Amino acid sequence: MSTARLNDRLAARQPLVLGLFRIVLGLLFTSEGAATVFGLLDRPASPVGEWPFWYAGVIELAAGALVLVGALTRGAAFLASGIMAFAYFTEHQKDGLFPLQNGGLAPALFCWGFLLLVFFGPGALSLAGRERRPGTVPGAPRRVRGRVS
Hints:
This protein has 149 residues and is mostly helical. Helices cover 62% and strands 3% of the residues. The protein has helices at residues 3-12, 14-38, 53-69, 73-92, 99-102, 105-120, and strands at residues 143-144, 147-148.
């Protein structure tokens, strides 16, 4: 198989793979928030109103659920990326420069994964994709009066 054909086949599946990436990332982030807020998955619940952990848990739960279903994905992903950057620099960075040193691998990966969704959108299998006209490719940019939006 030629490289061009392989690239074409992979490119045709980008919206689907991006959608699956969004779903898995949203599910993992939602589970983090649920564990923090409700004390699930062998993690004690953070006391209501405790700064910053309880508030971060609520944001993780809400933003993760929005990303999971693909509603308001870019905004929710931007918020999620921001709180993960905040968590990394305030809670982990003081213990070392690199994520493997300071235990901040998960916040770093979440931060960059959500930033990817900010720029690339929800992909396929999203609630936002259901609003598109029939015959359009889910996750593809739309043309509005001659420009891409």
